[in-house]
Amino acid sequence: RYGAKRSYHKLGMAVDLSCKEGPEFLFDIIMDFQLTFKTLGLGAVEDIRHTPTWLHLDLRPGSDIAIIKP
After folding, report:
1. Element (DSSP H or E) covering residue 58
2. Is residue 27 within 8 Å of residue 67, measured between CB atoms?
3. pLDDT bucket at 1, cuts 50 / 70 / 90
4. End-to-end distance of the chain based on CA atoms, in angstroms?
5. What counts of helices (H) and strands (E) characterise the chain?
6. pTM score of the predicted model
7. Is-contact 3 10, C-beta < 8 A?
8. Are 14 and 7 in contact (CB under 8 A)?
9. What is the per-residue pLDDT for 70?
10. Pairing mode, if any, of strands 44-46 and 55-58?
11. What is the C-alpha separation between 69 and 32, in angstroms, rounded?
12. Which residues in 9-47 are b (16+ Cβ under 10 Å) and which e?
């Protein structure tokens, strides 16, 4: 009903996170430990300039963690 038919959220492969410290806090942790997060399957994060109150993470394939624009 909502969102794209092939959304990573609808496929169970994405999540939007928030915390009291803000999305920059989560983004910085992921960027500091990219190898660890990539090993765990993380494929992309949304550019926090476009998502000021949450951080989107998904499991898309790729060799590096992509920073995507919504």
Report:
1. strand 55-58
2. no
3. low
4. 19
5. 2, 4
6. 0.87
7. yes
8. yes
9. 82
10. antiparallel
11. 20
12. eeeeebeeeeeeeebeebbeebeeeeeebeeeebbbbbe
Tokens of 58: 């998904």
Residues 6+ apart with CB under 8 A from 24: 48
Alpha carbons 24 and 35: distance in angstroms, whole number:
19
Here the tokens at position 1 are 């009903």
Question: What's at 51, amino acid-wise?
Answer: T
Each residue of 26-52: pLDDT tens digit? 999 999 999 999 999 999 999 999 999
pLDDT for residue 4 is more than 90: no
